[in-house]
Specification:
Layout: E1 7-10, E2 15-18, E3 26-31, H1 42-60, E4 64-69, H2 90-95, H3 106-123, H4 139-151, E5 155-157, E6 161-164, E7 204-208, E8 223-225, H5 227-239, E9 245-249, H6 253-268, E10 276-279, E11 282-284, E12 287-288, H7 299-305, H8 310-317, E13 326-328, H9 330-355, H10 364-382, H11 387-404, H12 410-427, H13 442-462, H14 466-478, E14 481-486, E15 489-494
The protein binds zinc ion (ZN).
Zinc ion binds near residues 32, 231 and 256.
């Protein structure tokens, strides 16, 4: 096992500290997943990318990783992000919207967006968690948890809900620094505020609602669980009472994670998570992403509609470390496309070198140079996931390979190939782990079809049927690829569509 420390900023202690699994060498990690009422945007995916990089670094250090990321398919209210227990269920509201018309019911809508989410996840080459638990599949555990909180005096029942009693947990606010209980007012208009609440900041564990489209029977009548209790229950069900690391977007610090801590620690009497990490929002063209101003991007907008290389999008989202605001622009994506193509060129050169006969020359100096850059890339990631330095170190490695270009020996080809594999394990920007899997990945099927056309074109050219060769080239271009003739033969390249 590597002796390196994996340093990460911890939101709770407000300092960068080593990530230390309770069981040495085994990271138990929970990352809050999406509420599946619409397509997740690239800002959401920046958060999931942070989680993905943590898993990759942990594995590079020789750790085992147990990673769980949930899917919220009930109970997340429209006002949950600012206060609690008010507003409409996001799922239910989505069904009543224009986009919701195509779904027969809320369950179908949840399934559709959950699957779309996973498809986008795979496009960005994110590692799959060990489990994607859904809130609706953990109703029994949530009811049991609420019962226990009532029994121990941490929760109380009103005619319309069960609330967590804030006054029973004096540490409430320790994560967000939101310690002034009197300021935790339900500052929301146009909603019904429950007069039976003991304190305005008390948050709902269960809401009674016989009209809700998704409802379960509980000791407190038909209704549905609060958003926060879902995550407490799912994290502890799979990872134990104390987890090593809990992640999410910066918007989840308060009230979601603060409330998860209160419930979980009152249930078990132990620390809920030993380390907390939150990813900053991203901006698009210097402004907050908003559907209204039209700078709102989903993965499918950029990849499926605009033809961006999904690995370039992944690269672009990594150009600024997770703790800083990333200003995403089309230029960021174009630059990332160039960088990803550079890696593809390195792979091609390594393959070509491997086809040569062994030269008998030593590749030690070349290997040492690349090895140092691999170590520096990993060092940068272990330094609070400094992705901008990590990408710069990787880029230096491509310079080393391209410097020798077609003169690479067979032995150097081997070294380059291994280095590229290891960099890909760490950064995930060269090859997608899903490209060959039977995931219905549009990209790989199209690419093999285009490759077949490229071979046919090559054959036509050798038979001097230039008319056919030209038609085949146009066909390849229509599929979103281009053929580049190089001294070593034709090369297929995906057109980025971003010009
Ligand atoms: Zn959560």
């Amino acid at each position: 096992m590597s002796q390196r420390e994996f340093l990460l900023y911890d939101t709770m202690t407000r300092q960068v500290k080593p990530l230390q699994p309770l069981e040495p060498g085994h990271l138990k990690f929970y990352s809050c997943g999406p509420t599946v009422y619409s397509y997740a945007h690239i800002g959401n995916f920046r958060t999931f990318l942070t989680a993905d990089l943590i898993c990759r670094v942990a594995r590079a250090l020789g750790w085992r990783v147990t990673y769980v990321s949930n899917i919220t398919d009930v109970g997340h209210l429209t006002e949950d992000d600012v206060a609690d227990a008010t507003g409409e269920d996001k799922m239910q509201r989505a069904l009543q919207s224009k986009e919701g018309e195509q779904f027969a019911n809320v369950w179908e809508l949840a399934d559709y967006y959950a699957e779309a989410f996973k498809a986008d996840w795979r496009k960005l080459n994110l590692n799959e968690p060990m489990l994607w638990p859904k809130a609706t599949q953990h109703m029994r555990e949530q009811i049991v948890a609420v019962e226990k909180l009532i029994e121990t005096g941490h929760a109380y029942v009103t005619p319309s809900a069960v609330y967590f009693r804030l006054s029973s947990f004096p540490e409430y606010g320790k994560l967000s620094g939101n310690l002034n209980k009197d300021s935790l007012q339900v500052g929301v208009r146009d909603v019904v505020v429950d007069d039976s609440k003991e304190h305005p900041g008390d948050f709902a564990l269960w809401k009674r609602d016989e009209k809700h489209l998704m409802q379960w029977f509980s000791p407190w009548g038909w209704g549905f669980p609060g958003w926060h209790i879902e995550c407490s229950v799912m994290a502890m069900a799979y990872l134990g009472e104390t987890i090593d690391l809990h992640a999410g977007g910066e918007d989840l610090v308060f009230p979601h994670h603060e409330s998860e801590i209160a419930q979980s620690e009152c249930l078990t009497g132990h620390t809920f998570a030993n380390h907390w990490i939150h990813t900053r929002f991203l901006q698009v063209d210097g402004e907050k992403m908003s559907k209204r101003t039209g700078n709102w991007y989903t993965v499918r907008d950029l990849v499926d509609q605009q033809g961006a290389n999904p690995l370039a999008l992944r690269y672009a989202l990594m150009t600024v470390p997770y703790g800083k605001t990333l200003n995403f622009t089309m230029q960021t994506l174009r630059d990332a496309t160039t960088a990803v193509e550079r890696y593809a060129e390195c792979e091609r050169l390594a393959e070509l070198a491997l086809k040569k006969s062994p030269s008998g020359q030593s590749a030690t100096a070349f290997a040492e140079e690349l090895e140092r850059l691999y170590e520096e890339t990993l060092d940068a990631l272990c330094n609070d996931l400094n992705t901008s330095v990590a990408l710069a170190k990787g880029f230096e490695g491509t310079k080393v390979i391209l410097r020798d270009a077609t003169h690479l020996t067979h032995e150097q080809g081997q070294v380059a190939r291994q280095w590229l594999d290891r960099i890909n394990d760490l950064l995930g920007i060269l090859r997608s782990q899903y490209a060959d899997a039977a995931t219905g990945d549009r990209g790989s099927a199209e690419e093999s079809a285009a490759l077949a056309l490229m071979d046919a074109r090559q054959k036509a050219k050798s038979e001097k049927d230039f008319g056919l060769a030209d038609r085949l080239r146009s066909e390849i271009e229509a599929m979103g690829f281009e053929v580049r003739d190089t001294p070593e033969g034709p090369v297929l390249r995906r057109l980025s569509g971003l010009n």
